[in-house]
Amino acid sequence: MNQQRRQNGVDTGGNTASRRRSGLQTFSSLKSIDFRLLWAGSIFDNLALWLQFITLSWMVWDLTESASLSGAAAGLRGLPTLVIGPWAGVIADRIDRRKLVIVLQIFLGVVAVFFASMVATGSAQVWHVFAYASVSAVCFAFIMPARQSLIANTVPPENMGNAFALSAMTVTVNRLAGGLLGGLIITTVGIQWNFFVEAGAYIATALLLIPMKTPYQQASTARFTSVLANFKDGFRYIWRDNRIILHLIVLGIILNMVFIPVPALLPPYASTVLGANASVGGYLLAAQGVGGITATVAIASLGFVIYKGKLGLICLVLGSAAVLVLAKSHWLALSIAMLIVLGLSQSTFIVSTQTLIQSMTPDTLRGRITSIYMLEFGLGPIAIVLIGLLMDLTTVSGALTIVAAVSLTLSLLFLVTFKQVRGLA
């Protein structure tokens, strides 16, 4: 097993196929024209994601004045991964990943134009919003394993960490840019134009991927066996052949059940704990985005200063501690500081873990392993509801304290017991 990890660029003893090079390497992966096209496409795709996230929430709120429905519309994107995620990974390993993403992006663009036209004519109702969100969510479940696999297919192994950091940067930057642009469009030219811009972003992504090539992709072997056998092979690899990936997936539960839900819970936190208005909630969300951008730029520029496995475990501890302090804070400056720490921890954990998993995974299984890892993405909306119910039963501060305390305890336990993860370089 160790020999296999060395061949894929990772060794639990600390040797890597690529030592961190001297000097800043912030945009080294962009020297590859293929990754450059994929990265540019990710900018547009994530812009579309955040525009939809913000616009659907606002639209449902405007139609119903229901906070729960508004949050459900935004959080729906992650739910299909719990059901169809592993099957989407099978598809990503059986057909051309690039073509799959192109076709789905064009389809999303067409659907977005159709929905924008309904909004413009005033015929869109609440169920139309949820139908549109559901279609987008299903497509997202198929796109993500293929897109994540394409990152490793467009750069050499020594640039994989840099490439994943730059890809994560497109998410954190658009969290800020999408929010600002979405709000500006809604207040100036009308909410329907957000969906037209979203459609344009999808089409731009597809156009950028058309000339892209995948020089580091291996020939598919999945199509030589049945779809059901492919499905089983993915889980078998994690359970029997490489249990360390299973450990990394377990760690991701904390990320998706505690860190990811925080942005959706900032409105009640800002109102009841800080006694602030909605504008302060925006500052808090921006603070988390600043932390995420800082982390991705630092990793892209300097690489991983310590072993990736140990770094990820430390980030879980720091992020959990930040949520715990946040729960007890009544001082805006301290809350902003803790959200910056949370953003740093969250993005660093995501980049380090994704790099490790992709480095240890054979390309012929990459779509399936990625989709299994991303199953946890569907836990975010569930966690938001559960934590929200806990807030209703107790208090906002009390609920966050309980969740953060459990998260911190588990993080410290994993830091001590997951020795193999700590040794992943």
Mind explaining what this structure looks like?
It is built from 18 helices and no strands. Helix content is 77%, strand content 0%. Residues 1-22 have low confidence and may be disordered. By secondary structure, it is mainly α. Helix 4 packs across helix 6 and helix 16 (379-393) packs across helix 17 (396-417). The longest helix has 32 residues, at 33-64. The radius of gyration is 21 Å and the shape is globular. It has one domain (2-422): MFS general substrate transporter like domains (Growth Hormone, Chain: A, Up-down Bundle). 53% of the residues are buried.
Total discrete domains? 1
Structural class per helix/strand content? mainly alpha
Low-confidence stretches: 1-22
- Name the beta content range: under 5%
Features:
0% strand; globular; disordered N terminus; Growth Hormone, Chain: A; mainly alpha; 18 helices; 425 residues
Write the layout of secondary structure elements.
Blueprint: H1 2-7, H2 33-64, H3 67-75, H4 81-94, H5 97-121, H6 126-154, H7 160-188, H8 192-209, H9 227-241, H10 243-259, H11 266-273, H12 278-302, H13 308-328, H14 332-360, H15 366-373, H16 379-393, H17 396-417, H18 419-422
Quick structural gist:
Helix content is 77%, strand content 0%.
